[in-house]
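Exercise 7b. C-alpha cells:
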C-alpha cells in the first residue's frame, strides 16, 4: 500500500517511531525512502558565507555571534562577482544547490539586500538551485527574493519550542515560524531543520520533528545538523552525540516527511565513512560539499568523491523535480565568441 503524506502526526506517534529498535527504524526509513526517491542519488550542495560574523543574536551554538569570543573574523557583505565565481566553481564540482548565508538577525531593506538580490539573480542564471539563509524576513522581502529567482530559503527551528529559550533568547520560536510562513506564502521552497547535541532531550528532538511534520505543507528540505562545538561559544564543551542519535533523527524525519530532502548537514568531519553510510541508509539524501560549511571545517571534496564511489552513490542532477530542465550557462547564446 502506498505511504500517505500526513500532516496530523501526534507527538506520541513520532516518539514511538524515534524509539523503535534502531535497525527496525532504519529498515522502515529505507523502505519509505525507496518509495519516494532514487536511493542511489544524493544531492550535493555548497554553502557560502556571504556576510560573516558580528551577528547581534545570542544563539549559543554559533561562532558568528558578536558577543562570543571566537576565531571568526567579521567580513562585510561579499561582492556579487566574487560570489558568482564561487557559485560557478561549486557547479563545476557537481553541486546543484548553492546556499548563501549571512550572519544577520534579519534582512533590512537597504543596499546590502539589493546586492543579495543580484547574487540570487546571478546564481539562478548559472542553473543552480539558489538558496539563502539571511535571518528573519518580512512577506515583502520574501516576495522580492522570489522575484529575483530564489528557489529555497533556509531558516532552522534548531530545537523544540520548549528548549528554544535555553539556546537563544534574542528571538522567539514564533518569530521563526512567522518567517517560515512568509517564505511559504511567497512560493519559495522551505528548508528548515535543526541541530542535535545541544543538551536537548530525546523528547525535544521529537518535539521539533512534530512541529515540522505538522505544518500545512512539510518543508521540502530538512537539514539535520550535529553540533559543531566551537571554542568561545557557550556550547563549546558539549559532548559529541552518539551516531545512533543522528541516525534516529534522519530516519524519523524520512518516515514522517517522506518527500522531503533530508540533509546530512554539519558534523560530518567527525563521522566515519560507515557512520555516513548508515545515515544514507536511514534516508539522508543530501550533503554539503567543500572544505568549509559557513565558518567551520567540512570533509574535502576528494574524500566525498571517494565515499560516493565506495557506496555506489551518484550526485543528483539539478532541478530534478521540475518539468523544464534549467538552461545551462553554456547553452545561453553568447555573442562574444567570435572576434
Ligand atoms: N543568521 C541566519 C539564521 O540564524 O537563520 C542564517 C545563518 S545561521 C549560521 C544558519 C544555521 O546554521 C543555524 O540556524 C544553525 O542551525 C546552523 N549552525 C550554526 N552554527 C552551528 C554549529 N556550530 N553547529 C551546527 N549547526 C550550526
Ligand atoms: C543548515 O542547517 N546547516 C548549514 C546551512 N543550514 C546553512 C549551516 C551549518 C553551519 C555550521 C557552522 C558553521 O560552519 O559556521
Ligand atoms: Fe546570528 Fe544566525 Fe549565528 Fe544566530 S545562527 S548568531 S542569527 S548568524
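Sequence design result:
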Amino acid at each position: 500500500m502506498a505511504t500517505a503524506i500526513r500532516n496530523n502526526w501526534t507527538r506520541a506517534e513520532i516518539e514511538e517511531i524515534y524509539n523503535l529498535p534502531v535497525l527496525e527504524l532504519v529498515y522502515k526509513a529505507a523502505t519509505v525512502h525507496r518509495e519516494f526517491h532514487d536511493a542511489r542519488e544524493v544531492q550535493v550542495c555548497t554553502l557560502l558565507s556571504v556576510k560573516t560574523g558580528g551577528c547581534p543574536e545570542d544563539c549559543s551554538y554559533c561562532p558568528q555571534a558578536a558577543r562570543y569570543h571566537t576565531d571568526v573574523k567579521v567580513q562585510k557583505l561579499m561582492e556579487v562577482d566574487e560570489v558568482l565565481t564561487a557559485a560557478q566553481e561549486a557547479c563545476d564540482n557537481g553541486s546543484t544547490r548553492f546556499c548563501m548565508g549571512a550572519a544577520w538577525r534579519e534582512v533590512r531593506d537597504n543596499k546590502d539586500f539589493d546586492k543579495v538580490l543580484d547574487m540570487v539573480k546571478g546564481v539562478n542564471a548559472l542553473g543552480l538551485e539558489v538558496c539563502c539563509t539571511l535571518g528573519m524576513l518580512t512577506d515583502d522581502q520574501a516576495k522580492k527574493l522570489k522575484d529575483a529567482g530564489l528557489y529555497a530559503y533556509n531558516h532552522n527551528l534548531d530545537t523544540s519550542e520548549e528548549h528554544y529559550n535555553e539556546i537563544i533568547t534574542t528571538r522567539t520560536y514564533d518569530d521563526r515560524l512567522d518567517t517560515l510562513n512568509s517564505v511559504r506564502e511567497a512560493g519559495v521552497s522551505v528548508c528548515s531543520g535543526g541541530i542535535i547535541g545541544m543538551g536537548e532531550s530525546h523528547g525535544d528532538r521529537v518535539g521539533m520533528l512534530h512541529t515540522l511534520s505538522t505544518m500545512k505543507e512539510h518543508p521540502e528540505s530538512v537539514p539535520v545538523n550535529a553540533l559543531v562545538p566551537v571554542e568561545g561559544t557557550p556550547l563549546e564543551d558539549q559532548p559529541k552525540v552518539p551516531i545512533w542519535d543522528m541516525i534516529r533523527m534522519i530516519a524519523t524525519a524520512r518516515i514522517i516527511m517522506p518527500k522531503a530532502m533530508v540533509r546530512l548537514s554539519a558534523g560530518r568531519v567527525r563521522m566515519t565513512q560507515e557512520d555516513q553510510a548508515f545515515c544514507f541508509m536511514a534516508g539522508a539524501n543530501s550533503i554539503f560539499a567543500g572544505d568549509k560549511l559557513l565558518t567551520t571545517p567540512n570533509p574535502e571534496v576528494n574524500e566525498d568523491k571517494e565515499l560516493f564511489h565506495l557506496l555506489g552513490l551518484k550526485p543528483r542532477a539539478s532541478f530534478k523535480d521540475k518539468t523544464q530542465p534549467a538552461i545551462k550557462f553554456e547553452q545561453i547564446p553568447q555573442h562574444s565568441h567570435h572576434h
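Instructor comment: Residues 323-339 have pLDDT under 50 and may be disordered. The domain at 11-315 is CATH 3.20.20.70 (TIM Barrel).
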